Please model this.
Amino acid sequence: VQLKSMENKINRQVTFSKRRSGLLKKAHEISVLCDAEVALIVFSTKGKLFEYSTDSSMDSILERYERNSTVEEEPAASHFQSQANWSLEHTKLKAKIEVLQKTQRHFMGQDLESLSLKELQQLEQQLDTSLKQIRSRKNQLLYGSISGLQKKERALQEQNNELVKKIKEKEDEIAQQQQQTQAQDLPTFVLAQALPCLTIGGTYQTGSGSGSGSGSGSRSGSGGRGEVEGVRVLTHQSNTIMPPWML
Model:
């Protein structure tokens, strides 16, 4: 049977999928049965990468291939060696880019159909580790932000206490000034009040004895009693005129 490219796109895609799976299976079998290091790289017509490597990574196998090919290669012209090296370097870089893109798609949850159970478990562990590191960094930033806010709060509280202290001192100073002003105005207010009039005097009345029939003893006696009564009357009248503070 002559091998040639299939013209029908659907048949070509189905055949590619079947042969690719068989090729990957054969690579895995030879690596397990013969304990060989196998690296398989397949690009589809659309440029999609399919690869397989043993427990060692693809990079280490490619580096080993480069070392062995360099040792086994016969000396040739420097131009051809440079071209070969650049071509190999280009292949390596292209393979790395494809691997990184594939890993990125896997981290985003895409193209997971080609992964085995073990590879999915490894991907899950990597995602868990990444999430732990992200959460740790986030918590660190949150704690730093909270600490900064607490410092600002303490500074504002100290400023508030200083302002309250100054306001209280100002109020005490104003109250003291008002008290001094009231103390200075009080004597003037007392002196400005009108003093009550002082009138000293009164009517003196002697006792009213019998004018014709009384003797000297009775006159003197009645006269003495009249003087006492007159003094009492004068005192009573004076009390009604004199202010209380002079009594």
